[in-house]
Each structure stands twice: as C-alpha cells, then as structure tokens.
Amino acid sequence: MSWKLPRLGLISAAAFFVLDQLIKWLVIGPIGLTIEGDERIVLPIFTLRNVHNHGVSLGFLRADSATSTWLLVGMTGAIAVAVLVWMWRERNRYDQFALGMIAGGALGNILDRVRLGYVQDYADLHFGAWSPFLNFNLADTAITVGVLILLARALLVRDKPRADGADVEKSNA
Q1: How confident is the model at residue 134 (pLDDT cuts 50, 70, 90)?
Q2: Could you read off the pLDDT of 23-51 as tens digits, one per residue?
Q3: Helix, strand, or coil here: 32?
Q4: Which residues have a catalytic role annotated?
Q5: Chain centroid to CA 42
Q6: Cβ neighbours of residue 99 closer than 8 Å, sequence gap 6 or more
Q7: What does the alpha-carbon distance between residue 123 and residue 45 come to, in Å, rounded to a whole number?
C-alpha cells in the first residue's frame, strides 16, 4: 500500500480549524460578546450568544474540575488522532474531506478547552421560543456534517468497480 498525502483532508482540517478560531475571536472580540450570556440578534431565527460549554454534545461528560477537563481533552484528543490516522489511510477524496472536517472541528474545540477550560459556543438557531439545538459553533457543525457525509456515503454510495478491479472513486485520490 502506498502512502499518499491526504491533501484534501489536511486542507479541509486546516480550513475548518482556522475558520472556527477566527469566528470565535470575532464573536468575543470585535462583536463584543465578552461576558457569558451576552447576545446579539442577527436574524429572527438566529442569535449570537456567548456560551461556555463545559461538557460535550448535549451536555454529557460535563467537566467541572481541572482533572475532568484534562480527561476530556485526552479523550477527545485520542479520537482526533484516530480520525487523522483514518484520514491518512483513506484513499477516497470525499471521505478525506469529511474526515478533515471532523479533525479540524475536533482540534478547534480541543484548543478552546486547553486555552479556556471550556468550548466557546456562540450560535443559537431557534424558531420563536423553540430551539431544536443547543448553542453550537462552527467546529461542532464541521464535526456533525463530516459524520453525516461519511454515513451517507457508507449507506448510499456504491463505488463502481473498474475493469482492472480498482474502485473508480478510490483511484481519484
């Protein structure tokens, strides 16, 4: 097996990481949501809100102490490393891109947890009083969309075999 640099995956990981950190900086800095709970209504269905997330998705594994924060950093770091290894071994460009989204988002949230002790969330999508999601950030979105791409491709896409036995999509890597 030849090792080929997963350029698309690395580019997507870097892009989502940088964009995530840039948006977080904009929300806290120039936009001025400096105190937890500060908010700015952007659209009738979208509000920017400063939220310090001490847990993971849906509030699970809440890190209320330095020890639990570092355990959470270690656990999410191990998952990020596994995703990067998978990306490095993956030959399909679409899957590399999706894995890059996941890795970039995970690294953005890990950096927050290391620097701040929590993940900086800011996005609140709501419909009147009904809010179908917890507050989130671009990193969370990248992770979710990346996982959905992998699931959709695994469940719905069949690679077409070529005459020489190699998969068409895999040969595009």
Answers
A1: confident
A2: 999 999 999 999 999 999 999 999 999 99
A3: coil
A4: 121, 140
A5: 23
A6: 6, 9, 13, 83, 84, 86, 87, 90, 146, 150
A7: 11
